[in-house]
Amino acid sequence: MKLLSKLASTVAVGTIAFAAAAGAYAADFAGKTVEWVIPFSESGGSAKWANFYGPLLSEALPGKPTVVVKFMPGAGSTKGANFFQKQKAGDGTLIFGSSGSTQFPYLLGDPRVRYEYKDWEVVLASGTGGVAYLPPDLAAKFDGGANALKDVNFIYGSQGATRLDLVPLLAWKMLGLKVEPVFGIKGRGDGRLMFERGEANIDYQTSSSYLKGVVPLVKEGKAVPMMSWGALDASGNIVRDPTFPDMPTFKEVCEKTDGCEASGESWDAWKAFFIAGFPAQKMVFLPGGTDKDIVDTFSAAFEAIKARDDFAEISGKRLGKYPQMTGAEAAGALSAATSVPDSAKAFVVNWLKEDYGVELN
Amino acid sequence: MDILTVALPALAEAFALILQPTALMYLVLGVVMGLAIGVFPGLGGIAGLSLILPFVFGMDTVNGLALMVGMVAVVPTSDTFASVLMGIPGSSASQATVLDGFPLAKRGEAARALSAAFASSLFGGLLGALFLTFFVLIARPIVLAFALPEMLMITILGLSMVAILAGRIPIKGVAAAGLGLLIGTIGEADAGGSLRMSTYDFPYLTDGLKLVIVGLGIFAIPEIIALLRQDRAISSSESLGSGWLEGIRDWFSNIWLSVRCSIIGVVVGIIPGLGGSVVDWIAYGHTVQTTKDKSNFGKGEIRGVIGPESSNNAKEGGGLVPTLIFGIPGSGSMAIFMGAVALLGSGDIEMGPQMLSGDYLDITYAIVWLLALANVVGTLLCIAMSGSIAKLTNIRFTLLAPFLFMLISFAAFQSNQSLGDLVALFAIGLLGIFLRRFDWSRPAFLIGFVLSGPAENFSNQAYQIAGSKFRLGFSVGIEYIFSPIVLVLIVITVVSVVIGLRQTNAIAPEGDVESGSKRAPLVFLLVLTAYIIFAFFNAAAISDRLVTDKFFPMLVAGISVLACLFLLFRMMRLPESDPIFADGEHNSDSANLVHGLWPTLAWFGGLLLMSSLFGFIIAIVVFLVSFLRVRAGLEWPRIVVLTALGVAFICFLAWILNRDFPPGLLQDYVNMPWPLGPDKGWIRG
Hints:
The complex is a heterodimer of chains A (361) and B (685).
Chain A (H helix, E strand, L loop, with lengths): L1 H24 L7 E6 L6 H16 L5 E6 L6 H8 L8 E5 L1 H9 L12 E6 L3 E5 L1 H4 L13 E6 L7 H10 L2 E6 L4 H9 L6 E4 H13 L4 E5 L2 E2 L5 E2 L10 H7 L7 H14 L4 E5 L5 H15 L4 H9 L4 E2 L1 H12 L3 H15 L5
Chain B lengths: L2 H16 L2 H18 L6 H12 L4 H26 L8 H12 L3 H36 L2 H18 L4 H15 L2 E2 L6 E2 L14 H20 L13 H10 L1 H16 L8 H11 L13 H24 L5 H10 L19 H30 L6 H20 L2 H19 L4 H31 L1 H8 L2 H20 L15 H22 L6 H27 L23 H18 L1 H16 L4 H22 L7 H5 L16
Antiparallel strand pairs in B: 1-2
């Protein structure tokens, strides 16, 4: 452990030195304005994320440019992404923040998608996690496996089957649960309210929402955590979520449940969409073909932000304790999040059509 | 929770926190910025908050709260200016104010209407804060009692206001509301994502139309065009009439109405998911129902201003409840507010149930009373300004109009930042002009539009959940659907519909419109009917697997078609002097119309066309110069000065809000510096 932290700090010092060096001759942003395009409205989770990183990025880039967040909502975030695809490689004054909602239409072959992730240069990948929970009476039937829950009629408040909710819906299907999704809610917060009002009896929240909205319910005895979606380790395996080390992951629950297999077509599909939706949920890109110097400068700047003494403290509360990946790690996250085997994709497309009547074109 | 041991000390701590010189300074700064932004129609809390977001990171918690709360609190106060003086709903909170406020301004009583509105706003804001101080402690179970059937009933109660605002021919009001509901369903369905009246080949419509655009199009454009055609000032009398003291006296003599409407504002504002978009209409409906002499509504009844204005500031307080104690934003600006609070201080304030615990209750109370304080400061500033701003109604309108076109185009463009925003504004504006001309109730249309999404979602979801409850047992299902709250709401709705229908002849939301020939009203009705029938078959074509996406538009279209056919049938039998053939072009005062409808509208159309070719800034320069020269007949020096001022102002506004202007075809080929082209020569998205 000691060795590891020593290693980490060496790397950090190295990157700061590198950032300074790179700044000296590669890219200097003095007096410039970096515009950070977010394909959502001012009120979403991506806005919160960009507003957190914006001022830090401004400090970390050589020449301390002004960083402004520009919102470009529309067409389920595909409008902003299509716009970004058309941008030529520039001087690094235009960056793009994508989210799971941008990745899913790409993976599912949504007809509105005219962007190609493989063209872009990734400089940061921010992860998150998710936790599913149950009311106490149903949680009593849950023993780490879901066998005793298979005859329960579940109601789940959902934003839509092609959104991030695809991950929990598929998980429940794999566990053999009878879950009826009530579509059309406006945000996960509304789903939690439905749970609190007793209208829904299964729900999930992303980690930060779980911590602030559901943990108080757990303390009052009104909700019991069921499982986390898990986290990715360095070699791409699903392990326990570091924020919730005592909770079993979906993988563990699946292995303990009859008829659910943590391998094969449906598992591959679930894992691919899980990665795109959670561990690599939000990413920062430069336009395709941007000079390597500029890309490296941004990578180094995000490295420097991560290396700040107070980063754990200021990010923990706002982003949760999740990996903020840069460099090769970010590239790895990107490729895991955007390359889904064709068979997995076909499986999901077919499942959406069979179970929910959703056709994507 | 023990009020004496927990709440009172927290309240004292809250006052100690906010009554600091720096906190008060930030509050005033926020209020001034909020007023400056709210005064422009279409810009509101969202624009203001995103303006200060870059600066709040790590800011002291109380100061940051003061800045943001100050800004959010006064938007519904300052948007009254646009509603009363120009007949333009400044934001969704003051749509109902337009109905009586604007006629008052036209009569030359702008100052009276404004001060009555501000007094009501202040009172509503304070009463809301007081109410919240106690209510917030017990709010959680009450908010949780509002499940989907209850929210659906509130939505239906909102829709029942159509009965009051339907106009002289109630069935026309029903059809107008149906059309509003239908237009609200355009785009991707929330439930299954099916497309309604739109295609992916033309992505603009898939997101649906935004309230800003529909509000501006349906109210602002028709009023601007109508005033322009007369070529005179808004106010028909030279003096501003009775001053602001009379307005305050008006408010005081209707203080109980103000109390009731404030409570309506807080209570409806508290319910998450509905937001505040219906509050002012419910308050207006209540005002009409409790007024003995209803003959003046729609023509300048001061109570019609006091009711909605009392409710809309109180609503902001109510809207804090779901945001603070559930962490669920009640509106777009509350969502940004929540995100911004996480950036304040050390970031340890998280909205949620813990805001009611001993540790954070002082912060909760600080927010509630900052809101009240901001209302006081904002109202005083508004009253101080109202005298001079009201003078706008004495300016020849032809000089104001081009700048209003500029402002509302800019505001509309903020919703999607697409040229489609301007096209949509023009199209809805055209619809608004005809609704106004043929005496179809525009408020009914707007209520339909606003409530379309909630009505569809809540009914689909409540139906689905009721189904699962009934599977648990018949009594479980019945208890779920017919809770005591639902029963009370049903009674209120029925009473309000009955009263509304009995009184509906008395209230003319479009004023008096005379009848003329048969042809024009008939053609308009046929066009509407054709659209509705088309929408019906469009929805019917959606796959049966996604019945939740097709049921609601088909039902609404079906009812609307029946209403239209009924009207058609009546039209065939009635003489052309019947009110069913109302046509504003035949009004006796239409002799005052100096200009025709189409030439006037062509100016706005021209601005749109030029924007699509050369981008907004070049278009607006050409538009201002030629309009001021040709239509207003000004001398060149004044034209140059006014145009320069106008363009400089809009550039300043865009620069400070960090926005671009609509680019045109030209910008696709030539890179131009801002503000002529988008920043850094971006190509069009």
